Each structure stands twice: as C-alpha cells, then as structure tokens.
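Fill-in record for Aspartokinase.
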Amino acid sequence: MTKTQIYKFGGASVKDALAIQNLAEILRNRLRNNFVIVVSAMGKTTNQLETLLSLKLNGQEYSENSAILKEFHLEICRALFPDEHVIFPKIENYFILLHHELNKPISKHNYDEYYDRIIGFGELLSSRIVMEFLCSQGMLILWQDARELISTDSDFRFAKIDWVRTRRNCQSQLKPKLEQFPVLTQGFIGADSTGRPTTLGREGSDFTAAILAASLDAGSVTIWKDVPGVLNADPKIFKDTTLFQELDYEQAAQMTFYGASVIHPKTIKPLANAGIPLFVKSFLNPNESGTKIHSLAKTESIPTFILKKDQILVSLKVTDFTFIEEKHIHLVYEQLQGLKLRVNMLQTSAITISIVIDSQLFKLEQLLEHLKGDFEVRYNEGLELLTVLHPDHDTIPALLDGFEVLIEQNTRNTIQIVRRVK
C-alpha cells in the first residue's frame, strides 16, 4: 500500500481567496488517498485572536476587533462561495462559540488554559473554509478535528505529546479514513486526556505534520512556504540569500534551535527518528524542487543568519559576594522551567548569570518576582538576538553597523550577538 503523504500549508498560503485557490491548484493533480492536509490559521488570525485575549484580560471592549476578524473570514468566503453556501452559517456558529468562550472569566492565573481555548479558533475556521472550497472544486475530502488525534498533557500553550495515545488515535481513527479519502485537519492544536483544548507552541503546525507523519509511518512531509525552500537567512531581512538544496536532520535541527522560522523547532526530531524525509517547497512556484531534509544529505557549511526580535536580556548578580556556582544556575533554570521560558542564550561570569529569553505576557514580571530574593536583577527589553552559523568573520562588522552590542558569544562554528539600535 502507498505510504501516506502529509502536506502542511501555513498561514501565508491560506491568507486570502487567491491563496486558497492557489492551494487548490497545487492539490488538484497531486491529491489522492492516503493524503493528509494540515492547515494553519489564515494570515495574521492568531495575532488578532491574541489581541482579543489582551483586550479581554485588561477589561476592555473587544467586540469591534472580533467583528473585524469575522468580516475578514466572511470576505474570503464571499470570494470563494455562492451566497447560499453552507460555509456562512458555519462561520457564524464558530464566532458564537468564540464569544461564548470569551465571556468566561480570565485572570493571570488561568491565562494559559484560557489562551488555548480561544486561540485554536483560527485553525478551526481556516480548515473548514479550505475543506469546503476543495470539495466545491470536485475534490472529495474529509474534515478531521485534530483535537481527536493529537493527545497531549495539560501544559497549556506548550503541551507535550502523548505519543502512545496519539499513535493509537491516528491508527484507529485516521488511517481507516485515509484508505478511502484524503483528510484535512488543523495544525497547532490538540487536547489533554480530559478533552480540554491545548496548543503546541506558536507556529506549531509544522510539528503537527511531523506528529501525524510519525504516527502514521508516513512516506514524507511537505511544508509549503512563501520562500523557495530553506534559505541561509530570512529574505525579508537579509539580502542575497542562498537556497539549501538539501540538509541533513542535524543541520536543520541546529538552525531551528537557534530560531530559524522556516521550520518549527520540534518538527525535525520525530521525522529523523522515523527516517521520514521533509520537503520545504514554495507554494508560489510549486514545481520547483525546494529543499529536502533527510539523513543522507551532504552538509553545507554556508554562513547562516538567524535573527530573533523582541528579546529580553536578564542579568542576575549574586548578592552575598560568592561566585556563581552550579546551584545558582540550577535555581534560575528551575524558575524558567516553571514559567515555560526557553533560554535563547546563556552567559556566566564570576558573579553574574545573563540569559536571553523571548518576550511573553506576564512571564518577565513573574520571573523577576521569583528571583529577586536570591539575585540583584536587571533587564533590557526590545533587543535582537543575531545568531550566525558557520560565520564568515569578514561579514560580521556590517551586521553591527548602527547597533550597540550588549553581549557577544563565540564558539568554533557559531557567533551570537545581543544588539539594539543605537
């Protein structure tokens, strides 16, 4: 029997009616049984839902923002469907459910769980619209709620996969359907053992595709992007980028670890463990080869530039005139783990620990509160973390022109620089 193929389409590939029509053309001559399509929320929908959450949390009126988000989806539907199509009452129903959730109480203490109940509506909306449009184009496709497949723990916003239950769900629920029809589902979302919605971390739809691939023993995963494949830098930020024709799993994992946004960092591991190749291709030029990530790739030591914005540098100084010891680092990491904060860079000196983390709502103030009894704490916000893999040292000065460097760290194959505009 033919092995399952997984296609994942991100927010840019379903951002408007033309993009969805383009998606349909990509699938038209490729779609068959044993095919899973994973879609993200449309365009910037996740950001807009986060704005609704922020307004709700601050006790501000959010109905106007919700109406704008609803109209955005309805406008796409009007361009794709006749007025009497069933999609319109379905969109209406999703927004009724969204407001039902938004009417529930929210606080800093239940924010993560509340976040996961709200934020998944983006994927539910986009998957319904895309599925209905593909069916209107003569492609018979089944819709699947990913929360019935992706089983997780209750670590809201950063849920960990229950691999045994997820595989069992996929084999018992999804595999029989795939023998007859292609299936379309959502990225990013799952559910815990009691059925409460969870999410896998921002941009987690790539990870969903990898989870499904590993659970179905798939033949390949293809991620469709608005770039030609995996590049050595973000073309929106850097000029003269280079396309990797192929990468091995280790090199790709290293790039995602440091923040390369083309692939979610958790995507590589399940595919590498199962030996499933990953293709990154352009939905703008679908017949181009893109990048293949697999175990047999030749390693290319091309300088690679990764820029993470909205970073926070936290400096922790011991207050009792002792030197930094393992217990101090353990204490800091214990608090970071409790707050689900990932360290993007760590540097120690005789009496200080410096960490660079992503900016997250509430998390900085909670971290400072936990650590102020043991350290003198200072921090800087609004920074950038530039990572250069396999650096050509002649290019570094140009990258720092107009910036103040707060911290720099060098290893044999990597340079990391925390910088801010002068």
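KEY FINDING: The chain has a mean pLDDT of 93.
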